[in-house]
Design a protein that fits this description.
alpha+beta, Lipocalin, 3 domains
């Protein structure tokens, strides 16, 4: 009997100790059964899941006097355009400041025609001018106001050509007068010829001036331009 009781008591002690060890192991493990304090694999960092366009922004300023090479996307002309007509262009190359691209190549510019004066018949050379006032950096939606110099072109003068036409007419008149009888006839012919040459000039307009689509122009900033750039 004593031997049996001793065996039962030993078995009970073993059972109690085993249960205590199991509870300690369970307490040291996490809710998923893994050991507390051990690294747990994740499906990706928060930075990787964030929007890449949400990176920090900083402001960079282009100083007054900066040149902006552009390519026209709108044809303008002294005889086909009118004041306040919209014009568009894009940057021919990127504009950088100390290694940072402020305005990428292809950035879009918008402006208006400021003058479109057709050629006159008697005087007044054809002239066309335009000014750009906004820019949208390529790949962005932000529109910036800019202050640039106006770009203008004037048709070449035709004064020399007009003088030759008038002079040619007078010479022709003098020749006709001489054939008629010389002296007084030559003077009459000269006046008549001069009048004919003048008539040609009065009825002929001078050249018009055009800036076609694809024309390369250069703008200059009148005031500094501050742009928000990424990175």
């Amino acid at each position: 009997m004593r031997g049996t009781a001793a065996c039962l008591l030993a078995a009970a002690l073993v059972t109690v100790m085993a249960g205590g060890c199991s509870r300690e192991n369970a307490a040291s493990n996490g809710p998923d059964g893994s050991a507390k304090g051990s690294p747990v694999a994740t499906s990706g960092s928060a930075a990787a899941k964030s929007n890449p366009r949400s990176e920090s922004l900083r402001e960079v300023t282009l100083p007054a006097g900066t040149h902006l090479p552009i390519v026209l996307e709108t044809t303008v002309g002294s005889d086909i355009s009118h004041a306040e007509e919209a014009v568009h262009a894009h940057l021919a190359r990127a504009i950088d400041v100390q290694g940072t691209t402020v305005l990428p190549e292809g950035s879009r510019l918008s402006g208006v025609v400021t003058d479109a004066t057709p050629s006159g018949k008697v005087k007044g050379r054809a002239h066309v001018a335009l000014r750009f006032d906004t820019v949208v950096p390529s790949g962005e939606d932000q529109r910036y106001q800019i202050d640039t110099t106006a770009v203008g072109r004037t048709a070449p003068s035709t004064k020399k050509k007009d003088a030759l036409e008038i002079g040619g007419g007078a010479a022709g008149g003098a020749l006709i007068g001489a054939l008629i009888g010389g002296g007084k006839g030559a003077a009459i012919g000269s006046v008549a010829g001069g009048g004919a040459g003048t008539a040609i000039v009065l009825s002929t307009k001078g050249q018009e001036i055009h800036l076609p689509r694809g024309a390369a122009l250069t703008l200059r900033l009148e005031k500094p331009l501050t742009v928000r750039v990424r990175g």
